[in-house]
Write a structure and sequence with these properties.
about 20% strand; alpha/beta; 2 domains; about 25% helix; 10 helices; Rossmann fold; about 450 residues; four-stranded antiparallel sheet; seven-stranded parallel sheet
């Protein structure tokens, strides 16, 4: 391919699409992969538009908040498989108004908008930016899903939250009703999923996630991890959307490696009571990578470690809500086993920031997201009693079957590739969480 630089953020490319790479000043880099995929990475947070020659797949990646918006507006494939082939070259240039096509005078454009004419969808986000990228969040009414919807809206995304409400709660997203660009759809993603219009990103967070839930709902847990992942990956393939799977540290089981790196394959009991969740997520990861390798779907896998914060269910069975609820009610705080098993706890805002950075990255392999600061469950329980000012005593009960003895993420990959690490300390995070929990304790009967 011959590339001629017209200006810092404008260039013309013509000829054969096979070439090794060329560097341009100011952080602009053009590369063509082995499959003819043109990737343009820019340090600046800018929108771009292009024309494409023939059927050469083109992808624009901007490592800023406009990444996916740029990708959809520039990639004429989405929703238009029969686009005309009258372009003689591809043109990349800064995009001005939404209805500009970035056409060089005297040339015809072979890219059609994937939105109907007259339906520009130029909604405004919190900071006044256009709502361009469109994202589907399954499990959007859950603990993590609701925070993710909120964060995406704040960054200018149009968000569709989808949830069967099996374990989700509409109260988690009621503050988003009426917000520009937000839609809620009650639906079970283990069935065929269809959405009209373009879609840039699918973030698959639907699943029971606490021991109480997946022990009570074993079949549903397996179905959403298998069928739900399959259906949403199919939608990503249809829409040419980027797909992010919310996986879990549970894929490591009761780990024999500590801390856990992404290369570790895990130590899981597939037929134990916890196996329904562990194996559902392991299958989901395998399915995600199969779609990436077979159908070239852009996929991301987040292995999420223990996360806490507002909107956790008070009685969902995980350590923090259980300890907090008992301490705030003045009840005995129940620690299972001798309390020497370890966990690491990440505050929800840190986790969500990591999720979005992963979504907007070019990383296809799994990435651990969690707080590497490790503590015993007994220490954690005592810290919660102290933080709440409770006089609760700690009592010990038998450890559940297959409960992991230690859990701590190695986040080297996240630090290196995403520039991410947790910022919120335990004292600060617990303070915010307790503030949310305290007025709701009376809701428990």
């Amino acid at each position: 391919m011959i590339c001629e630089r017209l200006s810092l953020l404008e260039l013309t490319c013509s000829g054969d699409s096979r070439f090794g790479g060329i560097g341009l000043p100011g952080g602009t880099v053009i590369k063509v992969g082995s499959r003819g995929r043109l990737s343009i990475s820019l340090e600046r947070d800018r929108y771009f538009q292009l024309k494409n020659e023939g059927d050469v797949p083109i992808e624009v990646t901007n490592y800023g908040k406009s990444t996916l918006a740029a990708r959809r507006r520039l990639d004429g494939r989405a929703g238009d498989p029969q686009r005309p082939r009258d372009c003689q070259q591809c043109v990349v240039a800064p995009l001005g108004d939404h209805d500009r096509r970035g056409v060089v005078p005297g040339e015809k454009c072979g890219i059609r908008s994937d939105r109907p004419e007259g339906n520009d969808q130029s909604l405004q986000g919190e900071e006044g930016q256009s709502l361009m990228a469109r994202a589907l969040v399954t499990g959007g009414a859950g603990f993590l899903g609701s925070h993710l919807c909120e964060a995406l809206l704040a960054r200018g995304y149009e968000v569709i939250a989808m949830d069967s409400l099996l374990t989700g709660d509409l109260r988690n997203i009621e503050h988003l009703y009426g917000r520009p660009g937000f839609t809620f759809v009650k639906y079970d993603v283990t069935n065929h999923v269809h959405l009209s219009g373009p879609l840039d990103a699918i973030l698959h967070f639907a699943s029971p996630a606490s021991p109480i839930d997946y022990l009570r709902l074993p079949i549903q847990t397996l179905k959403v991890g298998s069928l739900g992942t399959h259906k949403t990956l199919g939608l990503a393939k249809e829409k040419r959307a980027r797909f992010l799977l919310a996986s879990t540290s549970e894929v490591y089981g009761d780990p024999l490696e500590h801390p856990q790196r992404e290369e570790y394959w895990g130590n899981v009991n597939p037929i134990g009571p916890r196996g329904v969740y562990d194996e559902a997520k392991r299958f989901a990861e395998a399915m995600t990578m199969a779609y990436h390798r077979t159908h070239a779907v852009e996929t991301r896998i987040a292995r999420i470690f223990n996360t806490y914060g507002p909107r956790m269910r008070l009685r969902d069975g995980r350590a923090l809500p259980s300890f907090l609820t008992q301490a705030l009610r003045g009840e005995e705080v129940t620690v299972y086993g001798d309390g020497k098993q370890t966990r690491s706890f990440c505050y929800v805002s840190d986790l969500i920031e990591g999720i979005i950075r992963l979504l907007e990255s070019n990383q296809n392999d799994p990435v651990n997201l969690g707080n590497p600061t490790e503590m015993t469950i007994e220490e954690f329980a005592r810290e919660i009693v102290r933080a709440t000012g409770s006089k609760s005593k700690i009592v010990y009960k038998p450890l559940p079957t297959d409960d992991p003895k230690q859990r701590r993420p190695d986040i080297t990959r996240a630090r290196t590739l995403l520039g991410w690490e947790p910022k919120v300390g335990l004292v600060e995070g617990l303070g915010k969480t307790i503030e949310w929990f305290r007025p709701r304790i009376s809701d428990i009967r």
